[in-house]
């Protein structure tokens, strides 16, 4: 049971790290600063890999754990409660991150549309090119 509780504590630690990475980058995203988006996704992926490993270890340890005291069960419930809290907060952050990315994407699409429309307007005002020189009589 001790190993299981240690693993749960580790899992909660990495969930907290995940939350902190989200929080730090979300502040930048809200200011339309997406320069570090690749680092953001890489950090998240690394933490998710660690969480996946911890979950696998929890699965193995929980299948062989038999001795359970009331104190251990209470500690396990507390760990699960902390985990649930972090998971809920992370889900809320992810919704905010996706909203920031969607807003930035829409902004870029609108800018591209404006540039394309501007090119159409400018092309309508092009000066005609004459292949032959214009003489005084033609003027």
What can you tell me about this protein's structure?
The protein has helices spanning 2-30, 37-64, 70-124. With 139 residues, the chain is an all-alpha fold. It has one domain. Helix 1 (2-30) runs parallel beside helix 3. The chain is rod-shaped, with a radius of gyration of 29 Å.
Number of helices: 3
Q: Approximately how much helix is present in the residues?
A: over 70%
Can you summarize the main beta sheet?
A: none
| SS class | mainly alpha
Q: What is the total domain count?
A: 1
Order of helices and strands: HHH
User: How would you sum up the global shape?
Assistant: rod-shaped
Our estimate of the beta-strand percent is under 5%
**Could you list the spans in which at least 5 consecutive residues all have pLDDT below 50?**
none
């Amino acid at each position: 049971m001790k190993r299981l509780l240690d693993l749960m504590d580790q899992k909660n630690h990495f969930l907290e790290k995940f939350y902190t990475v989200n929080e730090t980058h979300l502040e930048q995203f809200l200011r339309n600063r997406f320069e570090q988006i690749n680092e953001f996704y890489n950090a998240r992926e690394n933490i998710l890999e660690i969480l996946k490993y911890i979950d696998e270890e929890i699965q193995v340890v929980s299948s062989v754990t038999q001795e359970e005291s009331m104190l251990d069960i209470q500690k396990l419930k507390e760990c699960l409660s902390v985990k649930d809290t972090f998971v809920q907060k992370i889900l809320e952050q992810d919704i905010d991150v996706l909203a920031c990315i969607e807003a930035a994407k829409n902004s870029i699409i609108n800018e591209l549309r404006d540039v394309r429309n501007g090119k159409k307007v400018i092309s309508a005002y092009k000066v005609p090119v004459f292949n032959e020189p214009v003489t005084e009589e033609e003027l």
